[in-house]
Amino acid sequence: MRNFEITNASADDLTMLAEWAHEESWNPGLTDRHAFFATDPRGFLIGRLDGEPVSCVSVVRYGTGFGFLGFYLTRPPLRGQGYGIQLWRAGMARLDGRNVGLDGVVAQQPNYRKSGFRSVWTNMRYEGLPPAGLPAPAGTELVDGRSVPFDRLAAYDRRFFPADRDSFLAPWIAHPTRTSLAAVRDGELCGLAVLRPCRTSSRIGPVYAESPEVAGALVSALAAADPGVPVAVDVPDVNPAAVRLAEQLGLNPSFETARMYTGPAPDIDHGGLFGITSLELG
User: What does the alpha-carbon distance between residue 251 and residue 222 come to, in Å, rounded to a whole number?
Assistant: First the structure.
């Protein structure tokens, strides 16, 4: 019999997982692994068949009551042979007792429902070249996100995410390959967005903003940081203004997932959520 073993991923393994995700058309960020591994180093599991990696899942813990599942896939030739479900059970055991979230691709959503997940909104990835030079509302300034004290950024992020995630947020914003912008009015944060390079369209996420005008200015300014390169934003339909904005910016829908939870939907600021941060870690 062939030997199937579940192990923790190494930092090098995360580079391989990013390649697998690329092959699935998920288009992960080129440097996402730095923030991912810093968040929960034991939160990435690899299924190995006779020593060779064949399946993976991320099961990242946030605080004491929340977890997020992602990167769930098995290599195509070995699907349907039980390796993925073994890894799934091990991952869910690691998150036992927590409210667990995930962003599920359409094909897997029925399986997630069988495992106790419930859909609460749909994310649609919108891609394209937004108009350049959209102005921020009067009195609003766009500044480098890294110039804002981190405790203020972390407190702002907490409005849109179910748990503290400082160890994730710091490298997500500050990695030298990324561009982050904060919107500030009267000394207070009223928006935040981060652009990261990917294999195809550069991804923008999160996009937090007090209004569509602030969100549009952030997306326009970030796209201008790499002229001519399309951008992609995963837009939650729980915020209809975000969907309208993506369409007004001339972006086109290309990829769909569903935000799902095992427990109650967390109480977050949906009206200010114009783009989610990451399909893998929430």
Answer: 14
